[in-house]
Each structure stands twice: as C-alpha cells, then as structure tokens.
Metal-sensitive transcriptional regulator (Enterococcus lemanii), 86 residues
Amino acid sequence: MELENKKVIHRLRRAEGQLRGIQKMIEEEQECMDVITQLSAVRSSIDRVMGMIMAENLKNCFIDPEADPAAQTKKLEQAINMIIKK
C-alpha cells in the first residue's frame, strides 16, 4: 500500500502544479482553448487517481474480505456505484 500511496500523492502533486499553471494562464489572459485543454488534462489526471484508489479498495475487498458478508457486499456495491456514476 505504501508504494500505491506514493504514486497517488505524486499524481496529486502533479495535478496541483497543473492547476497553478492554469491559474497563471488565466491571469495572463491566455487563449480560452488552451486553458480548457489544460483543465481537461487535470480532469483526466484526477480521474486516474480516483481509479487507482478504487482499484486498490476493490483489490483489498477480495484479498482481505471482511468477516461480515453484508458489510463486504455493501463495500462492493458502493465501489460499483462510484464507477457507474462516472
């Protein structure tokens, strides 16, 4: 899990840097399409982070199932609903 956390933090920091860059672009009144392109890249990056976290959570559900099958089912349903919402 430690390695996965480092990967997630790294991706989030990269997205944070991209957002700061977008703020600067807006302050400098750069082209709208350029700003939108960068915003789309940040959204994709965040989507990947969400996917990494959900995948890790699902993997843990199967590797380390809870003693309570109802709780396990609820966790899986929550994860599936998060994926479907997207």
Summary: Residues 2-85 form a domain with the Methane Monooxygenase Hydroxylase; Chain G, domain 1 fold (CATH 1.20.58.1000). The CA atoms of residues 24 and 30 lie 9 Å apart. The chain has three helices and no strands.
